[in-house]
Design a protein that fits this description.
Elements lengths: L11 H7 E4 L4 E5 L6 H12 L4 E5 L8 E7 L2 E7 L5 E5 L14 E3 L2 E3 L6 E3 L16 H6 L8 E5 L2 E5 L7 H5 L3 H8 L6 E3 L4 E5 L3 H5 L7 H4 L1 H12 L18 E5 L5 E6 L12 H18 E7 L3 E6 L1 E11 L2 E11 L4 H15 L6 H16 L5 E2 L10 E2 L3 H4 L7 E3 L8 H16 L1
Antiparallel strand pairs: 1-2, 2-20, 3-11, 4-5, 4-7, 5-6, 8-9, 10-11, 12-19, 13-19, 14-15, 14-22, 15-16, 16-17, 17-18, 18-19, 21-22
Bound molecules: FE2/S2 (inorganic) cluster (FES) and fe (ii) ion.
FE2/S2 (inorganic) cluster binds next to loops.
């Protein structure tokens, strides 16, 4: 599914110039160019976003026959539907007549999509129902071409999380997720009834490159960036009946924690929280411990966890539980969508806690995500106004990366390539190595 014109060519030497990856010399640096050059961005869309699995939606967002969800894969608008038999289908959200975006609604239920321009009709199987011969206006040749919606090359669901690929040349979704699948398992295991995405998604645009958005999981930034939020948590903890019960992030720096790199650029961090009972899942501690044992339930309830499934999504089980999709728009702009994920059938107090924590940390008037956003945009402005080619922003911890999984992770079967400190930046290195591999493979093709 190659639909691009040839972008300005980059060379393998350009890629080498953009990533200094010399851990034996204590160096890991990235080039500013990869955050602002439209030619780099074009190749990223083609050789990264259109060449791998991209998370699109959760099955709970399309539960019934003929439900649909409009998502994105890089710059491509896509449509996930359930057909009349309840099977998941994926298409480009583009009328095969003149290309019009078939639905601008985010989700809904439709047996048929009628294009508002000339009235062509497509069913939830993507089949075009237009009678092109009705008035004899179209040629035989036109009729023979077929005008169904264009299917995505691959579509798979892992425990309810729906991913699609525009390239058929990808491993299975399970192989792609590799060891990082455990991040999704620790969500999915929270309810035997399954998970549901709650109403009230958050959507905003950001004047910053998609990679800046994606990397929002280093513990290193937490205290300087979120000082005002931490001050508020401290204040709330002194109150008898605070407006929102929050996780005790004030103690984060002194708590056990860590970070793992997995294959294909995925990674995950974790920190122990001393007040896990204040988290929504804390309301079900007894049942979770009975079902999963002490070790795994500690991971599910008392550890906050943030995972990147490269290159497009963050699964964050921390203040509430959220899916954060990062959609690239241009070299200097992104579109972010955040969804709150919850175990179906959880107690009412837990559901209320989950929603309050979601609003409190992540909402448009939230207290923490806004900090991150303003600094991402400031990063972008700094990148674009500087002549210095390389950034030293990823070197922290380069000499203390250890192979495999630490003892805390081994206890619950985490199978990582490396582990490092949560306050280091080493967990991001794999993403950049995959970035370079995919770009180089693309240049060679
Ligand atoms: S563009 Fe869809 S019917 Fe013409
Ligand atoms: Fe942050």
């Amino acid at each position: 599914m190659d639909q691009h014109y040839e972008p300005e060519l980059l060379t393998p030497a350009d890629l080498d110039d953009m990533l200094i990856d010399l851990p034996e010399e204590g160096r890991f640096e990235v080039g500013r160019r990869m955050f602002e050059d439209p030619a780099v961005f074009d190749l990223e869309m083609r050789h990264i976003f259109e060449s791998t699995w991209i998370y699109v939606c959760h099955e709970s967002q399309v539960p019934d026959p003929h439900d649909y969800f409009a998502g994105r894969i890089g710059l491509n608008k896509v449509l996930i539907t359930r057909n009349g038999e309840g099977e998941l289908k994926g298409f480009l959200n583009s009328c095969t007549h003149r290309g019009l975006q078939l639905t601008t609604a985010k989700k809904g239920n439709k047996k048929n999509f009628m294009c508002p321009f000339h009235g062509w009709v497509f069913n939830s199987d993507g089949v075009c129902a237009v009678d092109s011969h009705a008035d004899g206006a179209y040629s035989d040749s036109f009729d023979q071409q077929g005008h169904n919606l264009v299917s995505v090359a691959k579509l798979e669901s892992y425990r309810g999380f729906v991913f699609a690929s525009l390239s058929a040349d990808v491993p299975t979704l399970t192989e792609f997720l590799g060891g990082a699948a455990i991040a999704l398992d620790m969500f999915a295991d929270q309810s035997e009834e399954g998970l549901e995405v709650l109403k009230g998604e958050i959507r905003y645009s950001s004047r910053a490159n998609w990679k800046t958005q994606l990397e929002n999981i280093d513990g290193y930034h937490f205290f300087p960036t979120h000082m005002s939020y931490i001050g508020l948590i401290q204040k709330r903890m002194e109150e008898d009946n605070p407006t929102v019960q929050t996780i005790d992030a004030t103690a984060m720096a002194s708590m056990p924690g860590g970070a793992y790199e997995f294959e294909n650029g995925h990674c995950m961090n974790w920190t122990f929280m001393p007040n896990g009972d204040e988290r929504p899942l804390g309301f079900q501690r007894e049942q979770i411990e009975k079902q999963f044992g002490a070790e795994k339930s500690r991971w599910m309830i008392d550890h906050v966890r943030n995972a990147i499934i490269y290159p497009s999504v963050l699964f964050m089980d921390q203040s509430s539980s959220t899916i954060r999709l990062v959609h690239p728009v241009s070299a200097t702009e992104s579109l972010i969508e955040i969804y709150c994920l919850a175990p179906k059938g959880e107690p009412a107090e837990a559901r209320e806690r989950r929603i309050r924590q979601y609003e409190d940390f992540l909402g448009p008037a939230g207290l923490a995500t806004t900090d991150d956003q303003s600094l991402f945009e400031a990063c972008q402005r700094g990148v674009m106004s500087s002549q210095i080619p390389m950034m030293h922003g990823y070197g922290r911890g380069v000499e203390r990366i250890k192979p495999g999984t630490d003892s805390a992770g081994k206890a619950v079967g985490i199978d990582a390539m490396t582990h490092s400190d949560i306050n280091d930046e080493a967990m991001i290195h794999g993403s950049y190595r995959v970035w370079k591999e995919m770009m180089a493979k693309g240049l060679a093709s």
